[in-house]
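User: I'm curious whether this sequence folds into something compact or stays loose and floppy. Could you predict its structure so I can see for myself?
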Amino acid sequence: MLRAVCSIGEPHDWEIETAASAWNALDRLQSGGVPHLLLLDVPRGDSDILHVLRWLRRFRSDLPIIMLSYPEDAGWRIESMRLGAQDFLLKPIENDQLELAIQRHLGVSVTPMDFSTEAIEPLPGGAFFISTSPLMRKLRAQAELLAQADVPVLIVGERGSGKKTAARLIHKLSVRADNELVRINCSGIPEAVLEAELFGTEDSVSSDSRSRLAILEVGDKGTILLDAISEMPDPLQSRLLRVIQEKRFTRTGGDTPLAIDVRVLATATSENIEQVQEARKLREDLYYRLSAFTLHVPPLRHRMEEIPLLLQHFMHKLAGQHGMTPRPYTPAVIEACQSYEWPGNLTEFENFVKRYLVMGEQDLRLGAEEATNGIHPTEGHLGADRPWNNREIPGGLNSLKSLVRSVKLEAERSAIATALEKTGWNRRAAARLLHVSYRTLLYKIEQYQMRAPAASSVGNGLKGSGWRAS
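Assistant: Here's the prediction. I'll summarize afterward.
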């Protein structure tokens, strides 16, 4: 560790002093030593370090302390932080990680890029909008125009590309920004539940004998975002169309029309919107009402120049959320990220950064077996089930582990294909046969780029399940 610290400190002209033990360091502090930062390299299993921290807190409560410990002593982390340690790093520690931690606690800026206020725009709900690429600058300009028009908008894009973020941007830039943005996912919800959520209920039909406030009422004067609009049952689509046209609605079971002033935004996945129309999952009159103003969100692979900024932003955001030190990226990782196509877009990208924050480059050498248990979304493991553009990846991936991974992934794909064939490509039935969720199966079908035979029905519509109002 001393050699690592010296090699890190030399370019910065840091003056590094050493002590034979933590108690020796404490004696020198009591004798008037005034370092700017203290590194405590803790011997394996040495619980005395907690007593040292208590004494250090008495004499120099303002002294930044970084603990360097072994993985088996990770249980001391919480107590160490409570006693005054500012950071707790587990060995083995990469030089870049240690340098970043030291700089951060010395008050040195560790942000490797200039995060200009124009590049990253905060949005409601903790989201953000990045517009450094020409495509995203164009998207922002379109969103600003649509925000001022106060009309229904259909937002189209691939899964995970940022459709909800675009909706939040429109809301923020509109005159409705001071009021609620309410979101509800129309997929995977029983019709009666979705109807009660969207249109509310009167006493006579409510199971608990109380009226339920409609989402339309919650969003009054504000904006409503309807995710996966094509998954909404046809009768509810008809009622929604009347709401958009007449600016009023009646609660389910009621007979009193209620006037509302609400803007409707809806999302749909671009790869399925044509199939959805052909299958008549989305009413033609509602589609034309919404699609008169359409915003297309480009996939991440079409804006690769944003990757370095996205990597840094997600890293600092996630590190702050989890109370961890941001982990620096090596040039090889950044280059690989810019070469990868990111089929899961920003959802996959954020999951990758989260794994990298915790595991570092070790995670790039892990396969699907470490991240999954049977059939489960791998979110497109970088360097696992998809090679980086089929190039040789640093870290010895062309090994026995890689061969085992390939066999497991091929077996998984074969199992899915067999289930789909048995059920005539009824994806819900296939999911039950495989004992996995419908969403997981849809993700796997997309991951393996599996397509139904030409004669198969496409009646399943837009993919997705689950709902949330926020």
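Summary: The chain has 19 helices and twelve strands. The first helix runs from residue 2 to 9.
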